[in-house]
Amino acid sequence: MEKEQRINKQKIADLKVGATYSNVRELMGTPEFNEAFKSEGKEVQVIFYRTNHQHSDGETTKDECTPLIFVDGLLTSWGQKAYHKL
Prior knowledge:
By secondary structure, the chain is α+β, with helices and mostly antiparallel strands. The protein is 29% helix and 33% strand. It has a single domain (2-84), classed as 2-Layer Sandwich (Beta-lactamase Inhibitory Protein, Chain:B, domain 1).
């Protein structure tokens, strides 16, 4: 898990605002969690990648992940502060 977290952090550090959902998924792989909804006529999708192990229970929780936020298929922001602004 620690290796996966380190790799995910490295990949997230290289992301650029405006990247497409498909390009990010190709780079990052399958997310731990995936949410989607419409807001003000726009499609919002949030995918979560594990980056911060906190609990030794064998379960991954959202607070152990970095959220990546897409609006209409483009990466607009990432991180907990951005997620809590949704």
